[in-house]
Each structure stands twice: as C-alpha cells, then as structure tokens.
Amino acid sequence: MDIRHFRYFVTIAETGNITKAAEKLGMEQPPLSQQIRRLESSLGVSLFRRQPRGVSLTEAGLTLLPHARLILDLRRQFIEDAHGLAQGKKGHLRIGLAGAVPLLPSIPFAIRQFSNIAPGVTLSLEESNTPALCEALLSYRMDITILRPPVPDQANVRVIPLLDEPTLIALPKGHPFTNLPEIHLSRLAAEPLIIFPRELGPGFFDAILAAYRDAGITPSLGQQAPQIAGTIPLVAAGLGVSIVPQSLHQLHTGGVTFHKIARPAPHATLAIGIRMGEQPPLIHHFITVLQQACKTHMELPA
C-alpha cells in the first residue's frame, strides 16, 4: 500500500464511478480496478459495492474515507511546509532588538513587509542590550538580532553591517539653546552629559565620547540612564543633555527638544548579529528583506 492507493480510493468515492475516476486520474480503467481490488485485499474489507452504473461505498468505505482524505491532506501539507521551509517562508523566527531599535521606522516596516511576503512565518520580538542579545543568540533562544556593535564574542557571532543612524542633541525644554536648529558640541562643555552604561552599547558610547574629543572638549558625565531610551526622561527632568539616536525624537517631545549636531557628529551604528556557520533559508530571507527596507526607508525627519 502506498499513497497512490489513498488517492485512488478517494477519487473513486468522490466520482462514484471507476471509469470517471480513471479519467480524472489520467489512467486506464482496468489498472485502476485492479489496484482497488489489491487495496481491498490488503485491508481485508470491501470498500465499494459494484453496481451496474457505478459504485457506492460500503460501511467500511464510509468509515475509512475521512481517514484517507486526512492522509492525503497531511501529505499535501507536509510537502507545502517543506517547500516553505526551503524557501524561507515557513517556520518561527525569534528576533532580538537592541535598545531603541523598534523606534526606527525601517525596522517595523521591514517586519511588516516580511510578514506580508511570508505569512507562514511566526515572528517573536524581544528588546534588550547587545551583550544580552548575543548571549541569547548563542544559547539558541534567539535566531537573529539587530544590535549595536561591537559584540562581546566576535569569534561566535557574525556581524553584518546594517546602517549608521544619525544622532541628535536632546535638550530640556526651555534650555537657552532651544531655538538653535544646529548645535556644535563645544557649546555643551558645561552641560552634564546623560549617558547609558558603556556595556549596553560600547560602540555607541565610545562614538559619543570620541565626538566630544574631536570637538575639543571633555564631557562632564552626569546622571547615568539604565538604557539608551532612558536618557530622554532624565533630560526632560532637567538633569542634563544627551546625544541620542535620531529615532528617539519620537519620545517625550513635550519636555525635550531635539537638535542637529554640527560636525563632528557621532553615528549610532546598527548591525545584524547571527551565529557563525550555515544559516537556514528563513534567516537569509529575513536578512534580505531587512537590508532592502533599511536602504529604501532609512531617512527620518529630524
């Protein structure tokens, strides 16, 4: 018995006629009749009552028909799922996002676009800092990450450059420089700099301090924020100023003003992080969609 016999059985049951079933199956009637007899013999039951103008199901046939249909449906679903997995359009993708990354319009745009292209893929998202994302990636609790390089384990995490996001100066509302559209960092020498712990994003942390050095000043480090996005409430509280990714201008706009930075200005670099080694088609498919989305949807209004 093989899958053909289930297809023969179901087709004859649906047409009620062996000759019509043979035509639908693209075969001759005698071989089909012979195959059905062999199936009945192997099962030890009669599936059909032979009648002058066709066939009808026996009690055994009526009982077994739903099972035969289910087997054919499972086979079809098995093949569809296998092809979907091979094309990166089926499965479950666990995505890790570094702090403030979800605020970048290109990221939700890419996720929405991927969901439209591959509706058979379920997505789960989790936001954390770069070290935690790498640990989750290497412990197989995540499949792909969008992080802020560098990564703590460069031997086991492959980093693929994604984009360099511009940065802005965040000032508390009412600051003397509120009406300036662009500010040179040298003018902030006396202002406490609100920044996040370096271990949460060493690349961005170092880029901020390097920009201050290039401007000829050493920042006065003020209150430390628990995460990158956490700098905004502290600025709103009047505890200092901060250098933030441009996408954070969407937060607390009532208590904070955002300003372009005159050169030298740091960038908030983002990259894709995946495990070293061969990746399944699903990962490659998502990376392609993500990279294209960032190329075409990156620019944000200041």
TrEMBL record:
Stored Pfam families: HTH_1, LysR_substrate
Keywords: DNA-binding, Transcription, Transcription regulation
PROSITE patterns (alphabetical): HTH_LYSR (PS50931)
Matching Gene3D superfamilies: Periplasmic binding protein-like II, Winged helix-like DNA-binding domain superfamily/Winged helix DNA-binding domain
Leader sequence segment: none
Keyword Transcription among record annotations: yes
Top-level taxon of the source organism: Bacteria
Matching InterPro entries: LysR_HTH_N, LysR_subst-bd, WH-like_DNA-bd_sf, WH_DNA-bd_sf
Residues in HTH lysR-type domain copies: 1-58
UniProt family annotation: Belongs to the LysR transcriptional regulatory family.
Protein name: LysR family transcriptional regulator
